Amino acid sequence: MPALLTAFFAPSVAAVQFALKTLLGGGLALWCAMRFGLEQPQWALMTVFIVAQPLSGMVVQKGLARLLGTVVGTVMAVVFMALFGQAPELFLLVLALWLGLCTAASTLLRSAWAYAFVLAGYTVAIIGLPAIAAPLTVFDQAVARCSEISLGILCATLVSALLWPQRVERQLVGQAQQAWQAGRQAARLAILGEAEARQGLLEVMGRIVAVDAQREHAWFEGARGRQRAVAVRVLSRDLLNMLRLARGAARQWQLLDTTEAEALRPWREILLHALDAEASVDLSGLAARLAEAAAEPARVGVQQVYLERLALLAQRVAQAEQSVQALAAGQAPRRAPPALSWHRDWQSAAVYGLRSALAFGVLAVFWVATGWPAASGALLLAAVVCSLFASRDNAPQIGVMFLQGIAVALPVAFIAGQVLLPQVSGFVMLCLVLGVPLFFGALGMASPATGASATSFCLHFIVLCAPQNSMRYDVALFLNEALAIVIGVGCAVLAFRLVLLRSPSWHGRRVLHAIRRDLARLTRQSLGGAENWFGGRMADRLLLLARHYPVAPGGTASRWDDGLLSLDLGDELLHLRACLAAGDAPLGVAEQRFMARLEQLVRAPAGAAQATALDEVAAQLQQALEQAPPSIDRRLALAALAHVQRGWQQWCALHEGEPNGIA
Amino acid sequence: MGLREWALGGVLLSPLLLYALLALLLTGVVRLALQRVGAARWIWHEALFDCALYVCVLAAVVAALGR
């Protein structure tokens, strides 16, 4: 285990800084909580370890989410206790349902703010469970919990902002540069239409999604962080736009015959060279030259459209380059599009919510049936683990890592809490006894390999030692608590293992169904944010599909092809709509009828019979376009229309023999 | 042995705790044996099977030792 050894015995400077920061923040929070005479100082200390993260924007964001969730949770705890205080069974049932609801909501949200829902869920359990026996104390518990969490967040934020602050927004620039490089590379591969294009596409989509995930944190880092957060939205749009046009150019290339292709190859080479990582080419100039070449009278039909598509692509690449520079300079461009949209899955969220409620319910029955007082601790921990890791793909593994952390925490906490602490007195000695194990725990938290186990170690070490103004030492209580912790986490891991959505075909079907719904909506979605709306969701979904369906050698029409075809169809539709919108005179009824028909067709199950269903409205739209005065936009719209029609036919062919379509 | 509490250094331990640990051990042994024989590949949902097996073994242990 070299990784384990390096994490603890040869840590990097950043890891030591992180550990010191966390420890100082924890000490500060503990001292304040004890000085103010708060009821459970351990909560303040725990909060510091929970929100501790290497970058300061992340700490602020997570702290705020935690605070928000705690406030909602405390209010709900008091409300539930007021309503169901006399009927503990009913109270537990409502608690299980509330927990399930919050877990489902946090799974659905897919953003860093989902943490607020997790907190809103289990805070009710933390406050409500000890108050079941004495309902009148619920208000004291609620106030204590809320004030101590706030204190912990305050201390953690303060220390992380003052001591060696590391900012998300600086990292953001590096990540954006990488996404930009990957985007150029993927665009090159897409233009060439090569087999590796899938890998390139996946990589750049992964990077776009990763940069976007940091956006929320950067927002909390001053004015420049906020500017950069806005610039990220623009960059995502430009990168998605660039990829879309590159893939569109490749589709147009396939329509050229051999002599036409040979004639246009030099132009393609020039653009490919411009996209090369090291090249510095005046892209706007190149776009102008391409447009000029397209306007030559000798060019006709597909050739002209190909060159025009290349010109458009060059323009967009130039625009994306500007966005990267704007991001690096920390300037927010005006009129930024809305943020990337995410794939949302109601069914998985509902199942995960039910799983949380189920685990909680089973343990609640155990608690009521046995009457074992410590079982409420198990209940609590199962609630925390179930809601915290619900949406992770590797939830069972994380659960097991959590258990490993507990296994280490039990003996260490026994020695520190039951053997050493009774012999010392004073705050300094308390810090010394608690600080040494926690320092190593924090070191482990800094490395990704040991992160989950180390966090679990720190939290349970604190819970089991329970530092208070007047300490109580009770071996029997310790043993009971230890047992409850193991049972609680074990039950949560069991729930993760028993109830899971590992059926890839079901998952794939859900994703494709959602894609179809979005294609239908794309026919009338306002164009302003459509790029980030459709592109973001598609990126998210294609990543999901790629994870569920790794490339099968020699596999025939796979779900992945299906997803890619939908992306093509959506891209051309977006392109068509953009070209139509750019034309000066609206086409009126022909355009509306085409869009309405397409929406209707995409929603209904597809099959070979529908392959010609689009022809009539397409012909009408084509006629309307040809009658209007000719312009570049009209020509591009005509080409896009042909591609949409072709895409639709391929779509019908792919879904041949599926009586219910893909749904 | 009967269902009586176990005294461990003055701390009384529930007999079920010991039975639960014993059952865990036995389940592991049974599971390994199934793996050896080759019957394990007929299991549809492994986690569910393990869980059910554990409950059965625990019930057997309590029935055998707890009278």
UniProtKB/TrEMBL annotation, chain A:
The keyword Ribonucleoprotein does not apply. The keyword rRNA processing does not apply. The chain crosses the membrane at residues 67-84, 90-109, 116-136, 142-164, 374-391, 398-421, 427-445, 482-500. It is a multi-pass membrane protein. It is found in: Cell membrane. It comes from the Bacteria. Signal peptide: none annotated. Keywords: Cell membrane, Membrane, Transmembrane, Transmembrane helix, Transport. InterPro entries: PHBA_efflux_AaeB/fusaric-R. Pfam families: FUSC. This is Uncharacterized membrane protein YccC.
UniProtKB/TrEMBL annotation, chain B:
InterPro entries: DUF1656 (IPR012451). The chain crosses the membrane at residues 47-66. Pfam families: DUF1656. Keywords: Cell membrane, Membrane, Transmembrane, Transmembrane helix. It comes from the Bacteria. This is DUF1656 domain-containing protein. It comes from Pseudomonas cuatrocienegasensis.
